[in-house]
Design brief:
With 503 residues, the protein is of the alpha/beta class. The chain has three domains: 79 residues, Alpha-Beta Plaits (2-Layer Sandwich), CATH 3.30.70; 173 residues, Rossmann fold (3-Layer(aba) Sandwich); 192 residues, FAD/NAD(P)-binding domain, CATH 3.50.50.60. The protein has 15 helices and 24 strands. The strands form seven sheets. The protein has a seven-stranded mixed beta sheet with strand order 7-6-5-8-24-23-22, sandwiched between helices. Strands 10-18-11-12-14-13 form a six-stranded parallel beta sheet. A three-stranded antiparallel beta sheet has the order 15-16-17, with no helix packed on it.
Amino acid sequence: MAFAITQNCCNDASCLSVCPVNCIHPTPDEPDFGKTESLYIDPRNCIDCGACADACPVDAITRVSRLGPDQAVFADINADYFADKPVESEWDVPRFPLPTINELSEVEVAIVGTGPAACYAAQALLRFPRARITFYDRLPTAGGLARFGVAPDHMGTRRIGEHFRTVFTNPRVTMKLGVEVGSDVEHRELSERFDAVVYAVGAERDRRLDIPGIDLPGSTSARKLVGWYTGHPDVPADAFDFEGVERVVLVGNGNVALDAARILTADPADLEGTDIAPHALAVLRRSSVKEVVLVARRGPAHAAFTRSECQALVDRTNIPVVVSGPVDVSARIADLPDSSAASALSGLDAVEVGDLPSGRRIVFSFGRAPAAVGGVDRVESIDIGSGDEKRRIRTELVLLAIGYQGSPTLGLPFDQATSSIRNAAGRVTDTEGIPLEGAYVVGWAKRGATGGIGHNKMDAEETVDALIQDMAGRTRQPATRRRTPFNRVGAWLPLQAPSRGLS
């Protein structure tokens, strides 16, 4: 009986290298890699050895015979991916380090950020025995989006933090938490002190929605909500209070929106024992939210969420999920192939958003773009759709979940079109495309705010390959080579006394 990859898949491809029969796809060398919501195990090739399950950093791989009723669908999802593909057992061409790699002198690298992209870059660098790394993070706690961006009840996905623990505690790694690059220490100082600086600064801005009333009190970012319930230091404990809030409208239908909808409608007792911030759990216990409406401007065929995340919502028997939209929305969902994300909504009741339900529920509203937010001193309603399809929804809270954007960082060249630091294969470049010596970038800051945790692994490998090639080709050493003391910390533990600056 084969294994199957389930909802928690982080796409970092750790499982691929241990599979003895090459039955996990897409591989990083295949066109689909980075475009599918997860990796998949071919049941025609799987020999049931379990090596992939042992290697998976987020416990996403399970023997098919052990899938529970709410996960049985993943056996079909894995098999469906290979339905129109030949049996594939040939291996990709192996990759080897540069022949000159052992001739390198010691390489000291600063990594700005401690999220997944930063950690994957560090893992790749630490394969080289003469590499030493210093992390810089403005927050007093390491982890980035792996800690503050993953829903607290997604305990499997949050285990990626344990996967990175060995990076933070490696004897060749120094941690400088509570240090803001650009304020406490300048890029120029880092470039003088280190052989290379890798920027893993993510995308810290929300995409703007330009409609009337969007800036009214009661209209805010879903990112802020996520930071609130995960305990992000930048979000005050009293940022949200749901007493008197009966309907929440989420603009957008990506996985962030689904996470928010799930947390807002969950039984607080089910959140006990998760990583939810204590202040958030206390507020949710007295919440009066009855309905969460997810508004999407496009139809179900273009849903931005993943099928597995949607399936998890539908499988919660205590919280009804319904659909809304044009008159044919149910038929359009029913016609979707099983591989489509919104196919998990097939067979659900169709409603018009109006009177509040007696209990809690989630509404997927398709094909109606937000047009205006109404209210005098704060949010009272939102208009969605246009013409005959225009609807006004009464609501006390509007949350925007329409994506993130990068912002110009530390004076580095910035591409406004992609909202990312200008780069070529991870090398930071000027406006003429010429690489800036010793400056590199990974993650969302490199490619724009696309892809999940695991997509950063291959991205980081590419950048580190470029960095090592450049180091091997250098003929001089940086002028400044001051040593820094080692501070060894756990995965999520701040330094007892946050370090400031370079020394």
